[in-house]
Amino acid sequence: MTQEIHGTVADGFEGVREEFAAFVAGERPDYEGQLCAYVHGRKVVDLWAGTDADALYGVFSSTKGAAYLVVALLVQDGTLELDRKVTYYWPEFGAEGKGSLTLRDLLAHRAGVVGTDTGFSLAELADDRQLAERLADQRPFWRPGTAFGYHALVSGALIGEVVRRATGRTLQEIYQERVRTPYGLDFHLGLPAPQEPRFRSTQPMTRTPDQQTLLDATPTGPHTLTAIAFNHNAAEPTDLATLPNMPLIRAKGPASVGGVASARGLAGMYAAAISGVGEQAPLLKPDTVAEFGQFHSVGYDLVARAHKSFGLGFQTTADTWHPFLGAGTIGHSGASGSQSFADPWSGLAYGYTRRRFAFPGGAAPENNRLALAIHRAALAH
Fold first, then answer.
1. What is the DSSP string of 179-210?
2. Model confidence over 289-346: pLDDT tens digits?
3. 3-state helix, strand, coil in the chain (%, to 5)
4. Parallel, antiparallel, or unpaired for β 42-49 and 199-200?
5. Residues 244, 204 contacting (CB under 8 angstroms)
6. Helix H or strand E segment including 106
7. Which runs of E-coded beta strand occur in 189-326?
8. What is the C-alpha separation between 213 and 221, in angstroms, rounded?
9. Is 265 helix (H, G, I), strand (E, B) or coil?
């Protein structure tokens, strides 16, 4: 039985509903997902299937977008300086040869501290301050600044400690005060207990035999960079797919992977960043968006073992996922399949969530067709 499509689209965006319905018709009968988009601060798509409009999902690394937005705001304010050494804010970070690394390089996944030799406990993964304390003394896995690799579970803790040292407040507190509350966003770094009933637990990935063969063909031993970055070398290796199902992760909202959101929350945050929403002004100036969306790390990612590109923290989404988007698009995907971004050229802010973990991880494949349909409609208006 095909899921019914709920929600609304603005005039001229009817094709997006049709594209979403066509995708859902080919999915499993238990599909749950949400799609939302703004153009120049106006909501133009608000659709969902298999759930309700108010459901919240673990969005994994889409969380990082909120963390990098906080950093962008602090750089824009003059509180943080991109070309300062990290040790200017956080002296302990200079241990084991990391003293020359700048904040710019830290944001661009060039630090080389993707994890620790012995991994982390769940309690440490949930607590950015504990992660930062462990990482300060860690020997880097490559010479800092000379290469890049995705700091999957720790980038939020690393930049969060810089934020805390510079401001005396946590990244999560600043996000709540300057981003989530003023714009009424359904995107939480630390889910309040009264909101828990809205959370929909992540369901495990389902694989075809061919997909399983593909995964089996690229094994990762526990001491490879990939395994270290995803905490497979810990005494109790992390099952990434189950992280948001852990109450401790949801409650503390670690800035790398702990966010809980709806598609409305994801899209709304990026709309707030580049266009503003309603009577609220944009959070970021165009020059700030351009700085953070500029290519900083491009080439072979030592952790992903593939070609990747990053701006300042944000994925450079037009290169990484959606080549039809404008240069300088900022965003971030999440392992379960969530996707979110802002294209400053078209004014498009996009958010997508789904409940079942998508193959092979990262932005789910359907995002390309859905985002393309919205982008085409946006350019036509």
1. IIHHHT-SEESS--GGGGGGEEPPBPP---HH
2. 999 999 999 999 999 999 999 999 999 987 777 899 999 999 999 999 999 999 999 9
3. 40, 15, 45
4. unpaired
5. no
6. helix 103-107
7. 199-200, 260-261, 297-301, 306-310, 315-316
8. 17
9. helix
Q: What is the pTM of this model?
A: 0.96
DSSP, collapsed to helix, strand or coil, labels residue 340 as strand
Checking phi first, is residue 337 left (phi over 0); if not, alpha (psi -120 to 50) or beta?
left
pLDDT digits (tens, 9 = 90+) for 99-154: 999 999 999 999 999 999 999 999 999 999 999 999 999 999 999 999 999 999 99
- Could you give the angle at the alpha carbon of 66 between the alpha carbons of 98 and 44, nearest 5°? 150
Could you tell me which residues come within 8 angstroms of residue 373 by beta carbon, excluding any fewer than 6 positions away? Answer: 15, 16, 19
d(CA 95, CA 153): 20
Give me the residue label for tokens 């749950």: 32
In terms of C-beta density within 10 A (0-12 exposed, 13-18 middle, 19 or more buried), how is residue 105 classed? buried
